[in-house]
Amino acid sequence: SSSSTAQAQAAAIDTDSIYYYDESTQTKSQQDKPWVNDPHYFKRVKISALALLKMVVHARSGGTIEIMGLMQGKTEGDSIIVMDAFALPVEGTETRVNAQADAYEYMVDYSQTNRQAGRLENVVGWYHSHPGYGCWLSGIDVSTQMLNQQFQEPFLAVVIDPTRTVSAGKVEIGAFRTYPQGYKPPDEPVSEYQTIPLNKIEDFGVHCKQYYSLDVTYFKSSLDSHLLDLLWNKYWVNTLSSSPLLGNRDYVAGQISDLAEKLEQAETQLHSRMGSFLMPQHRKKEPEDSQLSKITRDSSKITVEQVHGLMSQVIKDILFNSVHP
Amino acid sequence: MDIEQKQAEFIDYFVKQAENQKGSSLVNVIVEATSHPSLFAFSEILSVPSIIQLQGTEFSVYIDVLRLFAHGTWSDYKSNAGSLPPLVPSQVRKLKQLSLLTLAEVDKVLPYDLLMVELDVSNVRELEDFLINECMYSGIVRGKLDQLRRCFEVQFAAGRDLRPGQLGSMIQTLSAWLSTSDNLLVSIQDKIKWADTRSELDKKHQKEIEDRVEEVKKTLN
Amino acid sequence: DNSLLRQVSSLLRRLPAIESGKFQDDFLMEYNDTLLITYLAMITNC
Q1: Using CA atoms, how far apart are residues B75 and A255, in angstroms rounded to an integer?
Q2: What is the pTM of this model?
Q3: What DSSP string runs through B11-52?
Q4: Residue A21 — very low, low, confident or very high, per pLDDT cuts 50/70/90?
Q5: From the list A296, A302, A306, which residue is nearest C45 (CB)?
Q6: Which residue of C8, C10, C19 is in closest CB contact with B157?
Q7: A-chain residues within 8 Å CB-CB of C31?
Q8: Which chains touch B (3 or more CB pairs under 8 A)?
Q9: How far is the C-alpha of B41 from the C-alpha of A267, rounded, in Å?
Q10: Interface confidence: ipTM more than 0.90
Q11: Which end of chain B is less crowded, N or C, counting CB atoms within 10 A of the terminal residue's CB?
Q12: What is the residue-averaged pLDDT of chain B?
């Protein structure tokens, strides 16, 4: 038992060592600026459990309104490590060009107070939410991030979708960095497919080549593990009692309505094409991912989420409602 | 669970008191226990040898009182009031609280009319005051008062002492619950196996189709 | 253990958790809606 305790302690020290902030290493990294010559330099993001929790709770608290905040942390080679996050007193980040401007004074005050309190990490990025429409950067987001990367490197953009988080049962999060103006990125491997609503698809498509996504991983300290266990002990009843079927009704209705519009659009396209009258050699090659196949994938995704919700309801009904004393 | 933790030390206290007393002094212990505002369980006290020895003595009526508080209701007391000693107001309040727990055992939705009859309460205001102040605040019951439908929806009620013969039905219910859960687990595992098998068959089928398409393309070329 | 028996008795009294006509109606409606979505998704797949 003593050797297992020692092993556990060693594992805890290994996990907790990431929390150590080395001022000299960070200063050297700031001086060397390895990201200047390689737009693709940062490839990974490590987010602490605490920062993730705070960001997701903040995003969820905004409801259908976009919220925004900053992240504090450090860099380690080609990874950006996010240790903590704090909310900014702004809302509706997609509705104006520079929503951050309202919070400059707050940001400066907060950073100064943090330093005084002994928190040495700098601001390494910003996060905002896209309630219900996926994790990607809009035109406004891309221009904001480009500006940040010009003057505040290293800087990261994180997008969280709180509505899809509830629907899917896992955190919908994306971390992005933009390319410099005029840079032509090499052909990227296809990123994970996500549903984009029809009213946002243009904004998504125009700017999707101007940024790349980073791999996101998470870490937690030994104290975090203990606290999360306690939190689970307190809230497991609420977690099991809730149902995405009931809580996310509006979102699902919106998704189905969006799907219907996309189907109409696809049908119009198919009818207007002269494909059936052309000879096979004149027929244009079908793109790999036709609109109809995307729609099919979207409908499958919606259905799978609904079926998951129904399964949990049925299981709870059998377990707790079918037994009579 | 909270109510059990709260009354555990009082049960221990009164059991020790009962063990150390004899004869007439036990009567005071019984009266004190049945008047205590935070004690709703009396099986442990009932099983103390010195209490059992009161049977057949001049104080045996107090064992009946203790049994009444362990298993009975206010209506039971009223119908046997002649053979039982008079109760002090705190005992009356306690017995009414315990009567509510008995009613909640049978039905989760308790109409105000039934409660007013069973608890000897003359109006709705008095009933609601009793339910809120004496029952909900003491933690023995949790629920919702529906004034429109004039009923009390019980979400949680503390358990009373078990009556003889109740254990059998409890074991039956637990067994039924266990077999339901086991069957559910088995069916979930079956469904997982079925889904895996279907997925394998679909992949195989898709591969066969693709191979055939390639074959036909080669033949055409 | 009388305390444990009382707790078990209290727990068993809570079953079934919900038993009402309205709940059954809502539950079955939810069930039907999900089955309908599944059916529509299958048609879209085809």
Answers
A1: 58
A2: 0.78
A3: HHHHHHHHHH--THHHHHHHHHHHH-TT----HHHHTSHHHH
A4: confident
A5: A296
A6: C10
A7: 310, 313-314
A8: A, C
A9: 71
A10: no
A11: C
A12: 93
